[in-house]
Write a structure and sequence with these properties.
Blueprint lengths: L2 H4 L8 H27 L11 H25 L3 H15 L12 H7 L2 H14 L6 H32 L1
Helix pairs in contact: 2-3, 3-6, 3-7, 5-7, 6-7
Length: about 170
């Protein structure tokens, strides 16, 4: 959608996926204000984990950047990627423990669930804001590691494909 910017010589092309991911922080800030209002109304006090909330926001931003960088580079090369994104998003929603707690999944499936980068983020937000259960550190570590690997590999792939962007677009 930004072909006029991509074809410029000195335009840093990585800005486009970053801008999309950073735009989500505005939505998060508005939703967080609503959440604070609801927590006050329902007399729910956050625990000591609230001090770690910014780390989970950074982890969510890193996961969004990783997926955004990969998909934006793939979209330039393969034009049909943009049509699969809504389906991938819906599958990812069901694969992330949002409507259900990750503690419902046990055994080997719990390790597979931890491979989802957003599992650690969602469970971390639950722990930091509600403090209902102890934080599953192993699952958080696996999710964080997958996020870092996806982000670094996405950056390398994006940089490798960047020379072709202006020609293809």
């Amino acid at each position: 959608g930004n072909s006029n910017l991509i074809s410029k010589v000195y335009f840093p092309r990585l800005v486009i996926p970053f801008a999309s991911a950073l735009g989500g922080l505005v939505d998060l800030a508005i939703a967080f204000i609503v959440l604070i209002g609801m927590m006050i109304y329902y007399h729910v006090a956050p625990g000591i984990g609230i001090v770690a909330l910014h780390l989970f926001v950074l982890l969510a931003l890193a996961a969004a950047l990783a997926v955004g960088i990969w998909l934006s580079a793939l979209n330039v090369q393969y034009r049909d990627v943009r049509y699969t994104i809504p389906f991938l998003t819906q599958i990812w929603l069901y694969a992330t423990p949002i409507a259900y707690p990750a503690s419902l999944i046990s055994g080997k499936l719990h390790a597979v669930l931890a491979l989802n980068p957003m599992t650690g983020v969602v469970e971390g937000f639950r722990w930091a804001l509600l403090g209902e259960r102890a934080l599953d550190v192993q699952s958080l570590f696996i999710s964080s590691a997958v996020t870092v690997v996806a982000l670094v590999s996405g950056l390398f792939y994006f940089r490798r494909m960047e020379q072709l962007f202006a020609d293809v677009v």
